[in-house]
# Entry
Amino acid sequence: MATLANWAALEDWREPRAGRCRRLGRTSRLLRVAVTPVMPPGQPLDASVLGPLLAACAHRLRASVRATDHMARVGDHGMAVLLDGADDAGAQAAADRLVRICQGPYRIGDQRLTLRVLVDVELMTRQRGAAPAITT
# Structure
């Protein structure tokens, strides 16, 4: 899985992959996945738990997408999935599935944790540099 410093680096990562889909006459959809740990009030998340928690989430995410799809970790709390050949309905179904799968629960050490998961579905039918079309 690729690792990107931030969302601004996403364009350079996705363009070659989306371009391949266009050349093959297929559409693609980009899922922007943002995760945030859910903690009880007054109980801060220990920094040593955050890394393994996000790694476990990324593992679940990778296991739940097709082998032809592409994934990247983005920044500290984000992931991107480029769905190769997906239509709008397929992308929405994948987004709903990823929310259910990635929110948890997770067992990290002696803690049982969940994640708040937000997924935006972006159409990939635009030219490089144009404004994205977001459908949620």
Remarks:
- DSSP finds three helices and seven strands in the chain.
- The two ends are 25 Å apart (CA to CA).
